[in-house]
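User: Hey, quick favor. My workstation is busy. Could you predict this chain's structure for me?
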Amino acid sequence: MYKVVEVPNDILRVTCEPVTKFDKKLRQTVDRLFDTMYEYDGVGVAAPQVNLNQRLAVVHTDDETGPLVLINPEIIETSGREVGLEGCLSIPGEFGFVERHESIVVKNQDVKGRTHTIQASGFFARAIQHEMDHLDGVLFTDKLAVPNPGKDKRIVFMGTPTFAVSVLERLLEEGYNVVGVVSQPDKPVGRKRELKPTPVKECALRHGIPVLQPEKVRTDYADILELKPDLIVTAAYGQIVPTALLEAPPHGAINVHASLLPKYRGGAPIHQAILDGESETGVTIMYMVDKLDAGDMIANTIVPIEETDTVGSLFDKLAVAGSDLLIRTLPAFLEGWIEAVPQDERDVTFAPNISREREQIDWTMNGESIYNHIRGMNPFPTAYSTLDGERVKLFMGEKTTGSGQPGEVVRLEEDGFVVATGNDVAIKVTDLQPAGKKRMDGATFMRGAGQKLRIGDRLGGTHERT
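Assistant: No problem, here it is.
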C-alpha cells in the first residue's frame, strides 16, 4: 500500500510520463494502487497521488463495471454533459460540482501492453475522467461548475459564544443566505451589571442580520418559523431546540459540535478533552434531535491536542476546523449526497458544564492530571488553589520532578515555584494571579510577592512553614 499525498504537493501538478515497460514491477505497482484505493475507501487513485510520475491509474466504482486499470488512457469519443458532485483522496473532506462528459469511449492499455477500448457512462465515466485529469496535473477543484450550491437556501443560524461566531462568519463569507440569527438573551456583566450582547448577536448586527433572543426557545419559536428557513445551523447555542422547530425546515437542523461524537456530549467538550488528557479531539456535524447531542452524524474532522494546548488555543483550532468542515460539507449535504450515521450509544460520554467546585485543584491527584486540570481551565473559568488562606488563580504550569506532601512548595526558582502532587511529577507554577493582583508570569511573581514564599508552604490548605 502507498501513502496518498495531499495538496499542496508538486507531483499533483505534473503531466505524467507514459508507461513504457509492461513488466512484473508494473503489475506490482498496480496491485499496490488497488490496495491503497481500498484502504482509503476511494473509487479511484492515480499514480501521481502516490508520488509516481506515470500515466497509470485504477478505478473501481462497483462490481458491475469491475476493477479497471488505466494505462496511457486516451478519450476518443464523448457524448452528453452532466454536473455531479466529486471529492478527492488528495483533497480530503472537500467536495465540489464538476461538469463532465456523460458517456465516454477510452483507448487504454492493460498490464501486458495490449490496447483495448472501454465504454463508460454515468458515475463510472466520471470516475475515469477524474483519474485521467490527475495524469495531466489537473484537480477537480480546477473545474468546479457550481462553486457554491445552496446559495439560495434560507438559513437560520443559532449560536451564542465566540466559537459560533467563526461558523457564522464563514457562512457569510461563502455567500450563504443567512436570513436570521437566534442567540441567547443578553446578560448583565461586570460590577455595574450592564447588559452585554452575545458575541454571535454582535456579529449578526455588524452584518445587518435580524436577531431573535427567546428566553425559552422550547416554547417561544414562532418568530423563528416565520423566517421560513430551509435549513437551521446551530453551534453552541445553549438551549435544547424543540422537535417542532427542528423538523420545520426541508433540510432539517444540523449542529456543529466540538468533539468527536459520541464522545463528549454536553456543554464543555473542549474543557473535558484536555482535562482527560486526550491526544486528539475534533468537530462533528450532526442532525439535531430533541436530546442532548444525540443526532445522527453527518461529517467529522480530527484535531490533534498538543501537550501545551489550553482551552483557549484548542477553542481557536476547533472554531476554524468546525467552520471549515461545515463549508466543505454543506454542498454535498444540501444535494442529499451524504448518508448520516447513527451514534453508537455504547460509546457515549458526557462533558457537563464546569461547576465552581471543579475549578479547584486537588493536589492529591497525580501531576499529569493536575497539569491537564490547569490547562483545561485556561483561560476560562480558570483553575485555582489557596495560599495562606487566599485564593490564587493558576493559568499555566510545567511538569517537573519533585516530591513532598501534596500541595507542598518543594522548590523555589527564578521563574516560578514547584509544588508537590500525589506522585513524583511536580508542577512548576509559571503563570498565575494572586488575590487582589493582576495576572503575571512566574518570574514576575518570584521577584515580588513570591519573595515571601518558603519551601514547605502549602497550597490548598493551611499555610505551613518547616
